[in-house]
């Protein structure tokens, strides 16, 4: 059984929020076959503790505003090395660069199918928050 479409849609919202906050190496894995207790793991990196918290906060905000979702549990807010947001059907991991390298979640789940998050390839081509597609297009033509 593959990840549910709603889980994938929610994870894409979370990934876009992380991308807007300048998180790096944003990936998602369909872990539904391997785990059975959740559909998707989203992993994003940040270069410092303050950014880890900001990314996690933005993800929570976007998911609440757009999908009326709140995490079942939130862990790691005190240390801000690895913030885990458990939404049941999917789990978000926002990790400090050093913690991500040390724990190697990407290596652990590499055999699971990756999920296309639909993130813009070029960060300068991504619309700014609140910017319409037409404004972004006009900006990119300059």
From TrEMBL:
SUPFAM superfamilies listed in its UniProt record: Nucleotidyltransferase
Region Disordered, residue ranges: 120-142
Highest taxon, organism lineage: Bacteria
GO CC terms of this entry: cytoplasm
Keyword vocabulary terms for this entry: Cytoplasm, Repressor, Translation regulation
Principal location listed in the UniProt entry: cytoplasm
UniProt xrefs under Gene3D superfamilies: Beta Polymerase, domain 2
Assembly: Interacts with ribosomal protein uL14 (rplN).
Name this polypeptide is given: Ribosomal silencing factor RsfS
């Amino acid at each position: 059984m593959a990840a549910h479409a709603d889980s994938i849609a929610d994870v894409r919202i979370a990934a876009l929020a992380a991308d807007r906050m300048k998180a790096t190496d944003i990936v998602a894995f369909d872990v539904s076959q391997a785990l059975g207790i959740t559909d998707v793991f989203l992993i994003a990196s940040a270069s410092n503790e303050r950014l880890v918290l900001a990314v996690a906060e933005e993800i929570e905000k976007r998911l609440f505003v757009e999908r009326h979702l709140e995490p079942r549990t939130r862990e790691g807010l005190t240390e801000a090395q690895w913030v885990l947001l458990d939404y049941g059907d999917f789990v978000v991991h926002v990790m400090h660069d050093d913690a991500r390298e040390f724990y190697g979640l990407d290596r652990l789940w590499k055999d699971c199918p990756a999920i296309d998050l639909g993130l813009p390839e070029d960060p300068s081509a991504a619309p700014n928050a609140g910017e319409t597609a037409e404004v972004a297009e006009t900006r990119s033509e300059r």
